[in-house]
Amino acid sequence: MKMWPATPLNPPKQNISPLIRFSRWTALTAGVIYGIYRYNYLSTREVEIQKHENEIKERYRQKMEKIKQQRTEEEMALLGKEAGVASK
User: Fold this and answer.
1) Would you give the end-to-end CA distance of the chain in angstroms?
2) How far is residue 54's CA from residue 42's CA, in Å, rounded to a whole number?
3) Does residue 87 contact residue 80 with C-beta atoms inside 8 Å?
4) Nearest-CA neighbor of 77 among 65, 85, 69?
5) Could you give the angle at the alpha carbon of 53 between the alpha carbons of 51 and 58, nearest 5°?
6) Positive or negative, the Cα torsion across 51, 55, 60, 61?
7) Cα–Cα distance between 36 and 54 in angstroms, integer?
8) Chain-centroid distance, C-alpha 49
9) CA 35 to chain centroid
10) How far apart are CA 85 and CA 81, in angstroms?
11) What is residue 14's predicted lDDT score, i.e. its pLDDT?
C-alpha cells in the first residue's frame, strides 16, 4: 500500500476580495437574524401546543379517575355482596 506524500498546507491568502468578505459577513449576519426570528416563532408556537396538550392530559386524567372510581365502587359492591354485607 502506497502512502500519499505529506504535503504541507498552503497558508491562507491574505488578499481576499472585499466582495467575498462582505458576502461572508452578510450571510453570517442573515443566518443569525433568521435563527433568532425562527427561535422566537417556534417557542411561541410550542407554548400554544403545550397548553393544548396539558388540556388534553387533564381531560384524560379526569376520565381515568371516573373510570377508576366506578371500578372501585363495582368491586366494593361485589365484595360486599360476597361477604353478605348490605349495600347502601
Assistant:
1) 92
2) 18
3) yes
4) 85
5) 95
6) positive
7) 27
8) 10
9) 17
10) 6
11) 84
Q: What is the pLDDT of residue 3?
A: 67
Decide: 87 and 77 in contact? Cβ < 8 Å: yes
Grid coordinates given for 14: 491574505
Residue 85 DSSP code: P
Amino acid at residue number 44: T
pLDDT per position in the chain (88 positions), as tens?
A: 566 767 778 887 888 899 999 999 999 999 999 999 999 999 999 999 999 999 999 999 999 999 999 999 999 989 988 888 876 6
Distance (Å, whole) CA 31 – CA 37: 10
The predicted structure's pLDDT at residue 43: 97
What letter represents residue 63's amino acid? K
Q: Which residue is associated with the grid cell 371500578?
A: 71
C-alpha cell at 53: 396538550
Interatomic CA distance for residues 2 and 27, integer angstroms? 42
